[in-house]
Specification:
Helix content is about 20%, strand content about 35%. It is α+β, with helices and mostly antiparallel strands.
């Protein structure tokens, strides 16, 4: 929990904890994470919870699923996926129709079924596929094991059907008209004729494009840092222009490059915005916004 909720931020310590947990999982050959790895001390539990493991003193409650998957996804996503697959396999066997599973025999126990038995699948979507709907965007932050590279998902968000393509270091979100491609985590939002790109986990749009009339637009982000923002623009229409609004540093000079040719120099406004347009051409057009130092 300390790792999944960001309390433990030290990389070496996180890895040491997760490695130690997995070592114990392998030792006992457990199919899912138990409530606690080691016994309560005397006086910490009820008398009937001893000897260990018994009920909340060591049994397997599947409500840990999303927390466990999240903790492992950014470190060893193949391990996170292994436990998702273990739980899916158990579902095929018994429907997960139990409150918990015994630690010693790993048999189903209890008849007050918990909805938390599904939470490993929540972890699969949130932490491995990286699908995280936010109030103003879809935040995509995958941690893909090699086994899942090449996955395509269809996801409905606010009445819009999105296609999400997940390849190793190449992620894409599309609604059929607008598409964003990036090698790292990003946020996506589209509304009417407007497309928004959110760099990493930023809560405000980093780039806004508007496409009037018919046609489609794909933005493939190449670089995004304080010195340079660059992307490739691809469209099926080759007339008209695409207006852009880019968030940068306030009151700074920036040079706009289109197809590696310097087009103009602009000054960002007091809100840190640059506005310019790029012509629509057949094929890809390289666009770059570079800080003038």
């Amino acid at each position: 929990m300390a790792i999944a909720y960001g309390i433990c931020e030290d990389k070496n310590r996180k890895q040491a904890i997760l490695d130690r947990v997995e070592e114990q999982m392998q030792k006992e050959k457990l199919f899912a994470w138990p409530l606690c790895m080691y016994t309560y001390a005397l006086g910490e539990g009820n008398d009937w919870q001893f000897p260990f493991p018994n009920y909340e003193n060591g049994d397997i409650f599947l409500s840990w699923g999303a927390v466990g998957v999240d903790a492992y996804a950014s470190y060893k996503p193949e391990l996170a996926l292994k436990y998702v697959e273990n739980i899916l396999s158990r579902y095929e066997k018994d429907g997960l129709a139990f409150q918990r599973y015994g630690r010693t025999k790993q048999d189903g126990l209890g008849d007050d079924i918990l909805s938390g038995n599904s939470l490993a699948l929540v972890g699969l979507y949130n932490s491995i596929y990286g699908i995280n709907p936010k109030y103003n965007r879809l935040y995509l932050n995958p941690h893909l094991p090699e086994k899942l590279s090449g996955t395509t998902l269809y996801y409905k968000l606010r009445g819009e059907k999105l296609s999400i393509d997940l390849d190793k270091d190449r992620y894409a979100v599309s609604n059929g008209r607008f598409r964003i491609i990036s090698a790292r985590d990003f946020g996506y939002n589209s509304s009417g004729n407007k497309l928004e790109y959110f760099h990493s986990d930023m809560e405000s749009a980093s780039l806004e494009a508007t496409l009037s009339g018919s046609g489609d637009l794909t933005l493939s982000v190449n670089a995004w840092d304080k010195d340079q923002r660059s992307w490739n623009q691809t469209a099926t229409r080759n007339k008209g222009r695409v207006p852009y609004k880019v968030n940068v540093e306030k009151n700074r000079f920036y040079q706009i490059f289109i197809s590696d040719r310097a087009e103009k120099t602009l000054t960002s406004n007091a809100d840190g915005e640059l506005e310019f347009s790029v012509p629509l051409r057949s094929g890809a057009t390289a666009v770059s916004v570079r800080l003038v130092k």
